[in-house]
Amino acid sequence: MIDFLENKSLLLDTNVLAYMSQESYFKSMTVFLNRLESLQVNLTINAYIKAEFLRGANSQNSKKVKEELLNGLTNLTQLPPERQNLIDEACHLSSVYYSKCKNHSGKISLVDSVIWAEAKHYRDSGLYIASCDMNDFPTILFDCKELVLLEQEKTGEQIVIGIYQFSEEKFLLLEKDYLKS
Q1: Is this structure's pTM higher than 0.85?
Q2: Block means of pLDDT (10 residues each) for the chain, length 181 residues?
């Protein structure tokens, strides 16, 4: 299933953290996380994802629960502090994407643009992205490597976590057209 992630890094999108924090997904998320741990997958987030996740807390207790979740992920690391040109890279990637997909203008959030830049920068180090929102990682820039189906314990409701990797080849083709415009 996700064996290709063995000894790689997997950046968790905010929506994956949000599902982890829901009691109804505890069992299926635990199975998923245990599988990642058995493959020695290094789970990562960046400061933007952490801030986006924690800002959703509507009480002191809610914030504490979210912080405990992050602290409880023993194989979770934070990417190095912001690189000087991270925002410039995020803006460039967004511009290249929007030049090809003009009707999507304004739909990619700043956090997702930063994730794109991180995915591009750390691609050769084996960084993958886990997200429940397939629209945030368009196949015009990303390769979808795997879809993982998780089921809510009580209702049977299902979520899909996509495992994505930035495609340098796809980006270079888009960038070539962008630079001509």
Answers
A1: yes
A2: 93 94 87 93 92 84 88 83 79 86 70 93 94 93 96 87 97 90 76
| Exposed/middle/buried for residue 179 (C-beta within 10 Å: 0-12, 13-18, 19+) | exposed
Q: Report the alpha-carbon distance of residue 160 to residue 2 in Å, rounded.
A: 14
For residues 129 and 163, the answer to whether their CB atoms sit within 8 Å is: yes
Dist. CA 11–CA 128, nearest whole Å:
6
> Distance between CA 45 and CA 17 in Å, rounded?
10
Cα 139 off chain centre by: 14
What is the pairing mode between strands 142-151 and 127-131?
unpaired
DSSP-H helix ranges across the chain: 14-20, 26-38, 47-54, 60-72, 86-100, 110-121, 168-180
